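TASK: fixed-backbone design
INPUT:
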């Protein structure tokens, strides 16, 4: 009994840190626990599709319904976080940095969370994704790239241990799907080859800056598209895909498989996140084109991503 009390007291002294991240497609929260050895260990990760960037396209105001969905989830997260003695940060990415009413949205978020909302630049987002994905991996003496395809933008960063360069490209799964609506699956396309070719060409133009970087020996991929892809291919839960290697050919085949379905059929597939089903093929096509530009045939999934990178930079 004394040993149990001692263990309980020890756990009670552990420090928690949290971050809420507001993306174009999803709103997420990550809570980590700082161990007595100083390591940051995830203890809670939640992701809810809120589609804040719906109808935003290249610029303009945030959609009122998307704002309402996102703020409701933020209030939910705020309630859950009251169960932790934690420090809290908040970040936002592509949709908010493009929005004409970003200041009003930031005020609404800060009112609910009680902390400042940092609207990340694309370059900072890429750097934080690199830091998160490489934090617990040995990546010295070889060029490693980190690819983060989100709803509104795609970030790429590379380095050999330390960050050497990064870029943010104005293409994401939501933006590509809204630019080419047939990707969304309202009906099965009559010509999948033509649709795929159009989408790939669009994505490749937006991803062109990636080709200017040194070619990596390994690419680590993060983000909801890749977590879903790995879960489907490996037949695992989306929270248990870290380290899975996916070939570009597998991603291409998966994209074509989902393009041949309407949205309802996509949502019924095992292990797909229902809120991502409509934009899933677009995300896969973007990843495939990015890997082609980087001249690599596969990527490795890292579940440590932007959120973990933010917490490592802030608290480690």
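OUTPUT:
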């Amino acid at each position: 009994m004394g040993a149990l009390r001692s263990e309980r007291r020890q756990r009670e002294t552990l420090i928690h840190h949290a971050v809420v991240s507001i993306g174009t497609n999803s709103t997420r929260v990550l809570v980590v626990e700082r161990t007595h050895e100083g390591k940051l260990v995830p203890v809670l990760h939640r992701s809810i599709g809120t589609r804040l960037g719906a109808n935003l396209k290249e610029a303009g105001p945030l959609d009122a319904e998307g704002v309402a969905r996102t703020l409701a989830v933020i209030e939910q997260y705020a309630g859950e976080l009251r169960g932790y003695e934690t420090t809290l940060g908040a970040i936002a990415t592509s949709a908010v940095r493009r929005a004409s009413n970003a200041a009003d949205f930031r005020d609404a978020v800060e009112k609910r969370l009680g902390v400042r909302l940092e609207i990340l630049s694309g370059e900072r987002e890429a750097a934080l994704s690199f830091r998160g994905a490489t934090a617990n991996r040995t990546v010295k003496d070889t060029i490693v790239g980190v690819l983060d395809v989100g709803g509104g933008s795609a970030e790429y960063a590379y380095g050999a241990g330390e960050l050497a360069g990064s870029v943010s490209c104005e293409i994401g799964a939501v933006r590509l799907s809204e630019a080419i609506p047939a990707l969304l699956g309202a009906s099965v396309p009559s010509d999948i080859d033509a649709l795929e070719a159009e989408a790939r060409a669009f994505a490749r133009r937006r991803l062109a800056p990636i080709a200017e970087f040194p070619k990596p020996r390994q690419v680590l991929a993060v983000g909801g598209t890749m977590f879903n892809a790995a879960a489907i291919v490996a037949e695992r839960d989306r929270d248990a895909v870290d380290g899975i290697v996916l070939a570009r050919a597998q991603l291409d085949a998966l994209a074509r498989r989902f393009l041949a379905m309407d949205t309802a059929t996509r949502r019924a597939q095992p292990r797909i996140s229902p809120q991502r089903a409509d934009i899933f093929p677009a995300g896969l096509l973007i990843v495939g084109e990015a890997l082609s530009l980087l001249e690599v045939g596969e990527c490795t999934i890292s579940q440590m991503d932007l959120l973990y990178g933010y917490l490592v930079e802030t608290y480690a």
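COMMENT: The chain has two domains: 2-119, 134-307.
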